[in-house]
Amino acid sequence: MSDYVVRPITDAECRPTLNLLIRSLNGVPVTDESWALISGSWAADGRTGAFHGEEPIGIASSFGTELTVPGGAAVPMGAVDGVGVRADWTRRGVLTAMMDFQLRDFVERGYAVAGLHASEAVIYGRFGYGVATRSATYQVHHPARFREGVAAPGRTRLLSAEEAIETIPALYQRIGAHRAGMIARPEKWWPIQFDRSFTRDGGSWRLAVHSGPGGDDGFALFRNVPQNSYLDPDHGAALEVRDFHAASPEAEAGLWRFLLSVDLMEVVNVRGRPVDDPIGLLLDNPRRAATVRVDDELWLRLIDVRAALAARAYGSAEPVVLEVDDRMLPENRGRYRVGGTGVERTDADADLVLDVDTLAMLYLGAWQAGPLALAGRITGASAETLARVDALFGTGQPPWSGTHF
User: Is 252 helix (H, G, I), strand (E, B) or coil?
Assistant: First the structure.
């Protein structure tokens, strides 16, 4: 018999379980002041704990949102925003028990998918999560000048922290989820992930908003990081940028133009951008911009395989029959005929076999079937079948989430 239990947490257990999560990630527990700011966003609903007696030893936290899928539809998603096990209880099955409980809870809540950002890349595949989007880190060295003729109408202004907190949630909603992989940001997301930016790191973060002919249409959060030293007092600073969103290519170019115009900067570092960001093409010397990293971004898990597959659009190709295995949610096991006219369960012979984590990697169009087959993630497929899978699941634009949680 286990010496711990897994169950939903209570309101009284919110702060202790948040501190447990922070400590498991090598952070410092929240102060009374911080808790007063974020407590409304750390409610008990959606949070699963592991307890030894009354003492919390693990936490798996989530909130409900929506994921945009190819074709523009939105599906209900459980966003896993924190998983941790106390250091003296690791390697004892606590994580597996919590993830199993959480997945069953997601089924009951009617989520079609679940998503998370993984602190370690070797953990979540065994629970059915696969890398469904990737993001890039760009580094642009000065001098970096735009090409003549780059369309970037409009102007960019700076907002105070108070103005940013009040106005940016509505602007993000107005920009909209225009790319597969983007998620809705519910009200509880903002205090922890955005508002606190203006109080941590010494209050160094600032917010730039771009306005075009139709009004505000983009924003970027940034800060200056000194790089000078006693022996190198004239070394220019670095401009660090995150949470960069724009409603159009022109607004995106306008924000880039502003970021590259900030004085006394040696380099601009931008994390978490789409892998097809056009910044290099905008410059008269494209070598000033470099992609220095490409990272896994959103890890996706299909909770209801049929509902998730039916929600997205597909390209033009003959249908394929997928045989899906799902160790933790066996009700998803079976064969699915996927084609441009819809998705249905079937008893027909399978064209290929894959686990649910690999299906999640295909789902938003981030990966092609051939490399997945080469890696042993897809079996039983001919070259012609792999080509059909790519034609059906492929998208013209790489998926991207752009929201950390």
Answer: helix
CA angle, residues 351, 357, 362, in degrees to nearest 5: 60
In angstroms, the first-to-last Cα distance of the chain is 35
| Residue from 188, 171, 142 nearest 46 by CA | 188
Topology match between the domains 5-111 and 136-296: yes
User: How far apart (Å, rounded) are the C-alpha atoms in residues 101 and 384?
Assistant: 40
Fold type of domain 136-296: Aminopeptidase (3.40.630)
Pairing between strand 55-68 and 74-85?
antiparallel
CA 384 to chain centre: 32
Least trusted range by pLDDT, from 26-40, 253-267, 268-282, 364-378: 26-40
| Across 118-134, average pLDDT | 97
In this structure, what token pair is assigned to residue 225?
Answer: 């990081």
Task: Indicate the residue type of 274.
Answer: P
Tens digits of per-residue pLDDT, 140-188?
999 999 999 998 789 999 999 999 999 999 999 999 999 999 999 999 9
1, amino acid identity: M
Helix spans in 41-160 (H): 94-109
**Among 320, 338, 328, residue whose Cα is nearest residue 302:** 328
Q: Which residue has the tokens 């993984």?
A: 118
Q: Which CATH class is domain 305-393?
A: alpha beta
How confident is residue 230, by pLDDT bands cut at 50, 70 and 90? confident
- DSSP-assigned letters across all residues of 260-271: TT-TTEEEEEEE
Candidates 3.40.630.30, 3.20.20.450, 3.40.640.10, 3.30.565.10; CATH matching 5-111: 3.40.630.30
Distance CA 401, CA 381 (A): 30
Burial (CB count <10 Å: 0-12, 13-18, 19+), residue 225: middle
Domain residue ranges of the chain, discontinuous segments joined by +: 5-111, 136-296, 305-393
| Confidence category of residue 1, pLDDT binned at 50, 70, 90 | low
